[in-house]
Amino acid sequence: MTELHFPWLDALVLMPLIAAVLVGQLHDAFVARKWAIVASGITLLLAICAWQDFGIMDRSQADDAWHLSTMLFGRELFAMDRLSAPLLPLTALLYFLTALTTQRTKIRRFSFGLMLLSEGLVLGTFASLDPWMIIGLTIAGTVPPLLELLGRKRSVRVYLTYQSVFILCLFFGWMFAAAEGNVKVHTLWAIVPLLLAVLIRSGMAPVHGWLTDLFGNATLGTALLTAAPLPGMYLAVRLLLPIAPDWILQSMGLVSLFTAVYAAGMSLVQREARRFFCYLFLSHSAMVLVGLEMVTPIGVTGALCLWLSVGLSLGGLGLVIRAVEARCGRVHLDDYLGLYEHMPLVAVCFFLMAIGSVGFPGTLGFVGAELLIDGAVEAYPSIGAAVIVAATLNGIAIMRAYFLIFTGKRHSTTVNLNMLMRERIAILTLVVLILGGGIWPQPGVLLRHQAARELLERTGHPAALTTPAYSHAHGEGHQADPDAMPNRDAPPQ
Amino acid sequence: MSMLDWWMQVLGIIIVVGPFLLLVGLGIPPLLSVKLSERAVSRSVQFVTSVGLLAGLGLLGLMLSTGKRHVPIVLAHWVDIPDYHMLLKIEFDRLSVPFVILTFLLCGTISAFSAKYMHREGGFNRFHMLYALFLTGMIVTSVSGTIETLFAGWEMVGLSSALLVAFYQERPAPMRNGLHVWVVYRVSDAALLLASIWLHHLRGHGNFDAFLGATPWPDGKTILSSWDALFVGVLLLAAAIGKSALVPTSGWLPRAMEGPTPSSAVFYGALSVHLGAFLLLRVSPLLDQSLLLSALVVVVGLTTAIFAALFTRVQTDIKCALSFASLTQVGLIVAEIGLGFRYLALIHILGHGCVRTLQFVRAPTLLLDHRRLEDALGTRLGSQYAPPPEEAADSFRSRFYRWAMERGYLDAFLVERCVRPILAIFVFCDSLERRWTDWLSGTRSRRTEYLQRHTGTADDLP
User: Which of A54, A48, A42 has the alpha carbon at shortest distance from A14?
Assistant: First the structure.
């Protein structure tokens, strides 16, 4: 396998984990925040370097230089491919911006040690290609939110119930799949538990209750970071897609399609901004899963584009709502708050993030949504129509939330409620990425298309083979890769 | 490429890039917390509209002198991957050039008007930023050479329209009306998006030439089958119905009058309200392919014209009366399109847009104008307003009057029969979810919903 020029992956996973231990020892919350910002900032730089290094090499897969983990554990723990390459900086960026924008009013409720621990685990998951490694890290990733709920003395029964089922399904499902080996069709003992695990972790209806509960009871920062990187999608891509028969993928598609419409409708009737955000997020993540299920190059490309768009736009929207909460407490949506006059920049950023998330033209999500719907129409026209219905409802929900939070009455205060400089930097960074990616989408879409093709080739789906590679179609750039990874656990179906 | 062709390309690019730069120029400073002066904002809008108007006129002159009826310009290959190709293409023809000129002319006039009208208004810069978004959307829609580009412009117009209806944001009523307008737009946009995706699916890309024929407008012949033309055409008609407030969505038009008068004038008197008709004109080869579709367009147009004419007679404020008068004309224009009178419809749009804009901007001084007119004539002017029937026994007239006052109960029907039942289902699902998580957690899972709200000012927060 091709090597990166530096052990970026080991470094970017270890950095937040070591920092988590050190920051966890600090008693002064302000000092903890400072060091958390530094550690997550360095992690972000490492993730960007890894992504760029991988991009320059133009290979489908690469692992670390120097093989430090081979020396220590006898095997290489981390590797990256075209699918995971942009997910690493995206995740690191979300964690960094969350640390950066944590306000004085929230600083004692939000654990920076747990945030860094969670960052290390999620980055480790995205930097792993080995199924057992992914499973282990994903299961470990359920711990930090649980610790926070316990620390806040909230009921953990909902979270524990769902996560227990998730862990059992994930573990035993893959155990059966591994035991069955390279068979053409895996048994339902392997497939069904894995499907259920993916649906629970992705928050698909009707097994989404843990996520709405988490948004209601955990800090918004923790809930946001648990959801926004979409680790459930990663499980679907790495564990389920390679071994699932078509009817399972179609079932998953139907469930996610239902969730996309259901969650979009639910976001219209929520009375709290957090729950509104949660359902908006669920609807979008369900659309990503719909695209993945279609296993056509266009559909999967759309899903992967939308994945990045959802991470950035809804991550940014979550940070904006968090900024409003830091100033006004819980944001309720049953009456007008009229905050525009006092925080115009927050309102503008809320709006930009919101329209970015629903794929407004000129934003990052537009092309992703177009590709996704085009792929859906190509596969099943009714799916395309349902995705459009979900997008329409989401569009209405975001405008309703905007009007309720920022307009409708005159809010009285003499306190300055506008954004601080570091909040402004954080949110404007996301705005630039969302608008920049929307106005010039070709490089990003091309990379995601290559990742989609490799994913389909690896999972043995014939749709990938019917489409000419970009290099063949245009006679340029991308060369055939000797490191193209064979399917690890299943032969082509 | 000859020198004249080169000039046409340059002028075409100026027409599109100008509004986009204006949007960027007015949109970035608020993000950096920089406040532009009123003078800088007004002058930049007037400069861009003037340059755009001159470029449009120049292009028209060149097209007339060279006899060219179609000037396509490919700006970029926006997305280019195997199996999917999204082109950023604009084209100038006998439909788009008059629309571009009308847009720049009216937007320039209204920007000069609004510089005075909105002077020292709290949201002066916000108004002009949204105005720039509208201008960009109108130009992109007018000159779009692909269905995706048209959709992009269409969405920009819808967004700016909803936000300008909700411009006076310290009161709840404009917000409710803005949301109402947005809901109608989103639903109609969904139809346009589905049509766009379906066309893309049929032809592999959304280039108008590919499915409306390479012959310049209005002589194109579609290559779609009559059933495909009917399916796509019905979706496009649904999009046009929402955007132009045709029956049964007419109820949002008077609500849109909550916005500032300059935006009402240019949106609902002249440009935005004609966008549905423009869309039907653009895809008119589809109408030629399906008689049923043409008949449907005529029925929608005539029904709208009749309804709107009746609604106009009972309105009690000038802006609403003008908006329905405008809608009457739009209904007639749509009927003309369905009957195949394409040039007549285009001329009707241009003339009606100019006249109605003038009426809208004069609306705030209506009483003064009325008095001056009476002074000049030396006699009283008769009223166009139909008063409520005085005789209680005339029950038919009473019911009919009430029907017109309630705008045919179209709004009530859509809200009560379509929106509320859907919302009720989700409210019910929400209550089920609450019960489930309450039971599972053994306590009130949504504890924050029960907390007492803080109703004071932010200064009182602990």
Answer: A42
Instruction: Report CA-CA distances (Å) from A148 to A96, A142, A143, B17, B441.
Output: 19, 11, 9, 51, 16
The residue type at A50: A
Q: Buried b / exposed e across B431-448, counting CB within 10 Å, b at 16+? A: eebeeebeebbeeebbee
- Does position B456 have pLDDT exceeding 60, yes or no? no
As to burial, measured by CB atoms within 10 angstroms (0-12 exposed, 13-18 middle, 19+ buried), residue A439 is middle
Distance to chain A for B192, nearest Cα, Å: 10
Residue that is written with structure tokens 């081979």 in the block: A70
Say how far apart CA A226 and CA A205 lie, in whole Å: 17
Which residues neighbour A117 within 8 Å (Cβ) at sequence distance 6 or greater?
A16, A17, A20, A24, A143, A144
Q: Which of residues 143-172 of A touch B (CB under 8 A)?
A: 155, 157-158, 161
Mean pLDDT per segment of 10 residues, for chain A of length 493 residues?
A: 87 95 92 95 96 89 84 84 94 96 87 95 94 95 95 92 97 93 84 95 94 94 94 93 88 92 96 94 94 87 93 94 91 90 91 92 89 82 87 95 93 81 90 91 92 85 52 39 39 33
CA distances from A132 to A64, A109, A139, A462, B60 (A): 19, 34, 10, 27, 67
Distance between CA A115 and CA A389 in Å, rounded? Answer: 36
Q: Across the interface, do B433 and A377 touch by the CB < 8 Å criterion?
A: no
> Cα(A191)–Cα(A170) distance, rounded to whole angstroms?
10
Q: Which residues of B268-302 are buried (b: 16+ CB within 10 A; e: fewer)?
A: bbbbbbbbbbbbbbbbbbbbbbbeebbebbbebbb
Task: Give the pLDDT score at B294.
Answer: 96
Looking at this predicted complex, what is its ipTM? 0.92
Residues, chain B: 462
- CB distance A413–B459 less than 8 Å? yes
Residues of chain B neighbouring A271 (CB-CB closer than 8 A): 449
Q: Please give the Cα distance from A83 to A26 (Å, whole number).
A: 37
Distances A350 to A65, A136, A364, B435 between C-alpha atoms, Å:
41, 36, 15, 31
